[in-house]
UniProtKB/TrEMBL annotation:
Protein EC: 3.1.13.5
Database matches in Pfam families: DNA_pol_A_exo1 (PF01612), HRDC (PF00570)
Keywords tagged on the record: Cytoplasm, Exonuclease, Hydrolase, Nuclease, tRNA processing
Name of the coding gene: rnd
Major subcellular site: cytoplasm
Cofactor: a divalent metal cation
Catalytic activity reported: Exonucleolytic cleavage that removes extra residues from the 3'-terminus of tRNA to produce 5'-mononucleotides
InterPro entries according to UniProt: 3'-5'_exonuclease_dom, HRDC-like_sf, HRDC_dom, HRDC_dom_sf, RNase_D, RNase_D-like, RNaseH-like_sf, RNaseH_sf
Keyword Cell inner membrane set for record: no
Catalytic EC class: hydrolase
Protein's name according to its UniProt entry: Ribonuclease D
Similarity section: Belongs to the RNase D family.
Job description of the protein: Exonuclease involved in the 3' processing of various precursor tRNAs. Initiates hydrolysis at the 3'-terminus of an RNA molecule and releases 5'-mononucleotides.
SMART domains per UniProt: 35EXOc, HRDC
Length: 389
């Protein structure tokens, strides 16, 4: 098991990869004690040589090695002639985006491809290894400390398995997409992964992810300022936002609106370190800013799916199940439950109604909402029936 620990070795491997149609990749990282993921290991494997059954070179790349630059890898990411293959790539891509502002392009995500090919929702790598590569997979090293050196043989073997089996999975799924003509469906989904907006967390928008029961604009203004402070503080110091204060403490602070450190001392949910020093000062300033704000946030609109639309939402669920079964695609990849409720409530600017989803489901969903079609149970199947006017 070869480990690359120098820039020269990495450049040599990446030049080999550039001559290949694809390279499989994965990462191991830690995030328990940081805001941004700490990259600990990169795995890569090349396809088998022409006429040979065995796979090509598979390596571990040690980003923690002193003096190693990942620029040769990022140069490979920019190399359009080689497809970069990941499974469930979002977290991997987030690391590379924040480290260097670069994405692997072209990208093939086997988890998304598997959903498009009918393997179910959020299908795991282990499942694909069993069903496609027909190999067992040892996951015993999954939750180990990847920052510790040296890596054990078990860790190295586990890490390499995440890219060696991926070759067979990629070749199978790629062939399936070509056979069914669904490669453009995958490209639509991958475009979201390659959009920088997917990985940018703006402190000004952090409050929208905090679940609250009160819709009071003044209360929401305090929530907004507290969430903004917490996000900025966590980003600047690269610590988890929960280390600053958790959501339940944020809601408590927005409700009690403390004005002094003595008030903070009465909190039931605030961590001890947050009751003094920089965090305490930030909390008090945020509460003050929220109480004095003139640009008050508007409460979120009512959840879609009000009683008047419940029947239509239920019909849309039946239609989605029928259409996804017929297409052999995971229903969740087409539309979520929230999407169906939104369509039933009149929303039309949704991914479920555009692109390949429109062909599979969206067009008939709009026809159903408009009363142009009905659903009929025929035996064990659901049929779309035109409604004569």
């Amino acid at each position: 098991m070869r480990t690359i620990a120098t820039t020269a070795e990495l450049a040599e491997f990446c030049e080999l990869a550039k001559a290949q149609p694809y390279v499989t990749l994965d990462t191991e990282f830690l995030r328990e004690r940081t805001y941004y993921s700490k990259l600990c290991l990169i795995q890569a494997a090349l396809p088998p040589a022409s006429g040979k059954a065995a796979g090509g070179p598979a390596v571990l790349i040690d980003p923690l090695a002193e003096g190693l630059s990942l620029e040769p890898l990022y140069d490979l990411f920019r190399h359009k002639a080689t497809v970069k293959v990941f499974h469930a790539a979002r977290q991997d891509l987030e690391i590379f985006f924040h480290d260097a502002g670069v994405f692997p392009d072209p990208l093939f995500d086997t988890q998304i491809a598997a959903m498009v090919c009918g393997f179910g929702e959020q299908v795991g790598y282990e499942t694909l290894v069993k069903k496609i590569a027909r190999q067992p997979l040892d996951k015993s090293s999954r939750f180990t400390d990847w920052s510790h050196r040296p890596l054990s043989e078990a860790q190295a073997a586990y890490a390499l398995a995440d890219v060696t089996h991926l070759r067979a999975i990629y070749e199978f799924l790629s062939a399936q997409l070509d056979k069914t003509g669904r490669a453009p469906w995958l490209e639509e989904e991958v475009a979201v992964l390659l959009n920088p907006e997917t990985y940018i967390t703006r402190p000004d928008e952090a409050w929208t992810r905090v679940r609250t029961r009160s819709g009071s604009p003044r209360f929401l203004a305090v929530v907004r300022e507290l969430a903004r402070f917490r996000e900025s503080f966590a980003q600047d110091r690269d610590i988890p936002r929960a280390r600053v204060f958790k959501d339940d403490a944020l809601i408590e602070l927005a409700s009690t609106k403390p004005l002094t450190e003595a008030d903070l001392g009465k909190s039931r949910l605030l961590l001890r370190d947050a009751r003094r020093g920089e965090i305490a000062s930030g909390i008090l300033a945020a509460v003050k800013a929220g109480l004095e704000a003139r640009d008050l946030p508007k409460p979120a609109p009512e959840e879609p799916g009000r009683p008047g639309n419940a029947a239509l939402a239920d019909l849309l669920r039946v239609l989605l199940k029928a259409k996804s079964d017929a297409a052999g695609v995971a229903p969740r990849l087409i539309a979520s439950a929230a999407d169906l409720d939104a369509i039933a409530s009149g929303a039309r600017d949704l991914p479920a109604l555009s692109g390949w989803r429109s062909e599979v489901f969206g067009q008939d969903a709009l026809r159903l909402a408009a009363g142009e079609i009905a659903l009929s149970a025929q035996g064990g199947a659901v049929k779309v029936v035109p409604v004569s006017g």
